[in-house]
Amino acid sequence: MTCIASPSLPTPPDCPLAEPSWMQRSRGLILDLDGTLIRGHEVIPGAADLLSRWSGRYVIVSNNSTDTATSLALRLQALGLPVKANSLVLAGEQALHHIARHHPHSKLMLRGSERLQACAAGLGLTVVTQDADIVLLARDVGFNYTALQALTRELTSGAILMVSNGDLTHPGPNGSVIPETGALLQALLACVPGTRADILGKPAPMLFQEGLRRLNLQPADVTVIGDNVRTDALGAARLGIGYLLVGNAPHADAPDVARLLGATCPRRHVLPEGVVSGNDYQ
């Protein structure tokens, strides 16, 4: 298992206890993945310990729109993280389940990975290359001018636009930046301005609600741990779930989950001052 070094930040002081510490108050955890537990193929310090301590009492809710739960569980297990597929709630896969539930007979144009293409077929969705009723945009590493032209054609012909997640980037190994679905969305919206995009991933409620369902817990009994104030914190606050942030951003409660495990801070319930409760992604 490869680990990365913790950022050289000072130990955060214990916060005034407006409520019991987060570990005393939490019966279950909703965990972010990229930037919280891993960065690419690197495991962040404390991730394995956190998952071990909270075994059976966590779900990982991620804006990942490349993998399925089955494929990602295998990858995480290879990194030494004992994560089962039923503990993973992923934006791309859940977007397809959403379409299968609510639009089962619609023709779907899907821009996404081969794993998502196979998932769509397994759900019985009708995937087309033209004349679509719905366009679903996910993280498509093969995105190019031809794809942009095809999507533009479908949207100008009246197709509905759904998007797995709006993140512009996610953290990669060694401080690298990985382009995300939101960056592709910006290119598409430049071609069809005014198009309404239904973004299904965090901070929208769908993934968080599925996480609560799998934990079989109420929002008051759950803590969200993530690294992004505009997805993890915002989504949690909107649903009344307490949250904590890790990383080297200004609003972080600890530099990584290893340090968070030793902290006695209470959970937060409101957004940090100056953070706008909108749909902008960082």
Detailed description of the structure:
This protein is α/β, with parallel strands linked by helices. Among the domains are: 25-63 and 202-262, Rossmann fold (3-Layer(aba) Sandwich), CATH 3.40.50.1000; 104-199, Rossmann fold (3-Layer(aba) Sandwich), CATH 3.40.50.1000. The chain is 32% helix and 17% strand. The chain contains ten helices and 14 strands. The strands form four sheets. The chain has a five-stranded parallel beta sheet, sandwiched between helices. It has a five-stranded parallel beta sheet with strand order 7-6-8-9-12, sandwiched between helices. A two-stranded antiparallel sheet has the order 2-3. Strand 10 (169-171) and strand 11 form a beta hairpin. The longest helix has 12 residues, at 91-102. The radius of gyration is 19 Å and the shape is globular. Mean pLDDT is 91; it is low at 1-17.
